[in-house]
């Protein structure tokens, strides 16, 4: 690793608290996950962490209208799967488990091979642990924090944070991958707009045309999964393990070669944006994991709009 990103934390009380949370989680997860980081400074004047440089920036960079080489559908599935595996690790393998609380496209970073790494643990919370009687609380009661457009509506209304609050946020990221839209744009909410199109039976107008060609059945299943993740009722959302299994199935359905990422690194594509705002492409931790499985989904995408291979 020959390049690093430096993240500064101004010394305000809340920022210091977030820095310490960030540092604790980095130390915990780096031992478990071999994430390369160097804690440089922690004093009353300046607090700083140094992380591995992510040459392909954030997922948001690649979904921007300004990107010179849009992601293929296969790349989008690969990125979605990497992000889901990272969150699955946080929810089930980290000890204690962790709720991210700020999953969004700009917090999903891409390395030189477009492997997705979940970033920024400043708002994360440790999952509840069993009480003295052995009962495991179903949620954490906490002040609502996160990013508008990605916030779980039930968490927003009740202040009850659960692992499926992260599922909702990841579902919004999936909708971004499929449509190229931002969560909130021109007063329109991506979840509402996609649901309207989905219920009408014609989603051709919302699928990102920059993908050019894609397998219609795979897009149907991916869209159905994203919509289930964004259900208002948390009990109707899948668990992260279910999401990973379904994405593994979708990836296995891709035509031969489509599930392999382009060998061309996208670092050059982002050179301009990263040179002008490199600190915006950083995060407080990069995480991914591995698992496999299968699943089921459905939707209505006309095959006529798919370019032949």
From TrEMBL:
What is the topology of this protein in the membrane according to its UniProt annotation?
Answer: Single-pass membrane protein
The UniProt GO MF terms for this protein read: ATP binding; protein serine/threonine kinase activity
One GO term of the cellular component aspect? membrane
Q: What keywords does the record list, in alphabetical order? A: ATP-binding, Glycoprotein, Kinase, Leucine-rich repeat, Membrane, Nucleotide-binding, Repeat, Serine/threonine-protein kinase, Signal, Transferase, Transmembrane, Transmembrane helix
Q: What class of enzyme is it?
A: transferase
Q: Which Pfam families match?
A: Pkinase (PF00069)
Cell compartments where the protein resides: Membrane
Major site of localization recorded for this protein: membrane
Keyword ATP-binding appears in the UniProt entry: yes
Q: What is its EC number?
A: 2.7.11.1
**What positions does the domain Protein kinase occupy?**
1-250
What protein name applies here? non-specific serine/threonine protein kinase
Source species: Zea mays (Maize)
């Amino acid at each position: 690793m020959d390049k690093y990103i430096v993240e500064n934390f101004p010394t305000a009380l809340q920022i210091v608290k977030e820095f310490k949370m960030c540092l604790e989680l980095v130390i915990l997860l780096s031992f478990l996950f071999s994430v390369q980081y160097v804690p440089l400074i922690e004093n009353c004047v300046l607090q700083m962490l140094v992380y591995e440089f992510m040459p392909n920036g954030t997922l948001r960079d690649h979904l921007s209208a300004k990107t010179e080489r849009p992601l293929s559908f296969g790349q989008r599935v690969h990125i979605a799967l990497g992000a889901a595996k990272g969150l699955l690790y946080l929810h089930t393998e980290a000890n204690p488990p962790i709720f991210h609380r700020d999953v969004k496209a700009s917090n999903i970073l891409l390395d030189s091979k477009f492997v997705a790494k979940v970033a920024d643990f400043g708002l994360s919370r440790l999952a509840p642990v069993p009480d003295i009687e052995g009962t495991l609380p179903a949620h954490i009661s906490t002040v609502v924090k996160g990013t508008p457009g990605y916030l779980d509506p039930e968490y927003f209304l009740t202040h009850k944070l659960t692992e499926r609050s992260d599922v909702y946020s990841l579902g919004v990221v999936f909708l971004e991958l499929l449509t190229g839209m931002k969560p909130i744009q021109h007063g329109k909410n991506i979840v509402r707009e996609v649901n309207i199109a989905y219920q009408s039976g014609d989603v051709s107008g919302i699928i990102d045309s920059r993908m050019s060609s894609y397998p219609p059945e795979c897009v149907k299943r991916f869209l159905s999964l994203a919509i289930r993740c964004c259900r208002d009722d948390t009990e109707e959302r899948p668990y992260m393990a279910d999401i990973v299994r379904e994405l593994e199935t979708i990836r296995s359905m891709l035509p031969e070669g489509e599930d392999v990422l382009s060998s061309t690194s996208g670092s050059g594509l982002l050179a301009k944006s990263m040179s002008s705002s490199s600190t915006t492409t950083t995060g407080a931790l990069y995480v991914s994991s591995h698992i496999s499985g299968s699943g089921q989904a459905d939707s209505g995408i006309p095959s006529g709009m798919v370019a032949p291979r």
